[in-house]
Structures are given as structure tokens and as C-alpha cells.
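subagent[fold] <- orchestrator: predict structure for attached chain, return C-alpha cells only, no commentary.
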Amino acid sequence: MYSTRERIIQAAIDVFFHKGFDAASMREISEKAGVTKPMIYYHFKNKEALYCHLLEEHLAVFCRNLETLLAADRGYIDLFYAVIDLYESTFSQSEKIYHLIQREISGNGRLVGFLTEKYFSRIFLCLAQFIQKGVAIGAINPLLDSRLAGLTLSSILLFYFSQRNVLTRLSCYADPEIFSGDALRSHILNLFLCATTINGEEQQ
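subagent[fold] -> orchestrator:
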């Protein structure tokens, strides 16, 4: 059973997802959660505070998971696969909230500056350092700029795991196998890693 606070959060994600921030109302959220409006205000100051909490809570978890993952003592290719798996599991478990996050940052969102400074910068720096480490050990193509390569990696994974509806439609124009998870992993390794690393000469 969800607690009252958890019911409010789940209802808010659904309402914000379908209505957007401006059109969503606390009345709709309260009705969907099966609680009174005063109960929502007991937990959250206002609609913006509730909305901000939803985005922050999930981004904070993702940042912690990414940082913990990349600090692990594992082989470089293994870590590359693990990063891909983290993006996949994150989107599959919280699809609606990450669509909200993308919607928020795709335009002139009210929280884009705050979210960039607090979370997206962490992701950017974390992946840039990961790529730089790969360059240092000879696993990553040394011609790549580690900052742009980290941003590119994140962008590919964000699109792939958040836009399955687009990929489904694109499969009408190409072999659907090129959009498979295995094909994605192989493609990403080919983009970033040196040939000797891909061929099994992985450096630790």
C-alpha cells in the first residue's frame, strides 16, 4: 500500500504527464490520489514545489547511481555496458517522469537553469571524466573531446530509451534489428572505443 505522500506523488506524475505543468490542477491531483487538497498542501507548499520535487527526486537518484557505478573497480568495457544498462533501467522504471524532465528542458522551462546547475552538470562532468579515463588508458579514441563525447553518449542513450515510439515508426524504413538493444551496444562501442579494445584487448 502506498502512503498518502506516495499516492500524491504517483498521481501528480500522471497528471503532469498528461496535462503539463500549466494545465494541471491540484484538484485533479487530489482526486486521482484520493486525498483532499489540504492534504497535498500539508506535504507540498504549492504546485510548483510538488512538480520540482518529482523532477529532483528522480534526477538525484540517477546522479547517485551513475556516480557510484563509475567509481566501481570494473573493466572499462564492462562499465560502458553498465552505463547503457543504467539509462535503460532508469527509463523503463520511470518513463513518465523522464518524459516530464525532457519536456521541461526541451524549451524555456521554468526549472531548466536550476536542474542544469544541480543535476545535468553532474551527469555531464561524470561522463566526461569517464571518457577521459578511457583516453588515458588507451581504450577510447584519443581524437575525441572527452566533454563532447560524454555529452554525445548521454544524448544517444536519452533519445534511444525515451523515444521508443519514434524508433518503432522508423523500423518501417529499415531493418528493425538495427534498433535492437544489442545493435545499440555494438554501435556505441564502435563509436567510442579503439579497435584494439573492442577486439578483446581491454585495458583496466
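orchestrator: received. Logging for downstream: The chain has a mean pLDDT of 90. The CA atoms of residues 33 and 178 lie 41 Å apart.
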